[in-house]
Amino acid sequence: MTLGIGDRLPAVGTAMNDSKAELGRSIEMINKLSELTASGKVAVDPIGGGSLLSAIGDARTRVAELRQSGDSIDHKPPLGADPVSTAMAKKFHGRAGKDDLSFLTVLGKYEEALEAVESNVRAAMRNYTSTDGGNAIRFRPGVQA
């Protein structure tokens, strides 16, 4: 990030909220894809499905890395024993891993969505293969539809 004279640094809370909102939108889109593929109304060809599964696998690897590094922040930071420090340590701990909208909680929801969509894409690929195979039989010599 490049700052000019008079520019202000973005607030840390704003950056965290933007990241959580972005992750929330990703979860929403993944859930929509999952619903479509789970319905059986959508078939995914093996080439496109392979690309999807590769992207999902990459995302799952990244989530695992983030969860592992996130586990290190899932504790109350040692800010001091006075009332303000104790309250801030509790607040930081909640935002890191205990609140419903904490980093680790939202990351866990994202991971669950990725697992579901991966399973549903595999099912949609099987649906495509089954449908394609069934239709191909009609075009084989000597087979009547």
TrEMBL record:
Top-rank taxon, per record: Bacteria
Protein name, as recorded: Uncharacterized protein
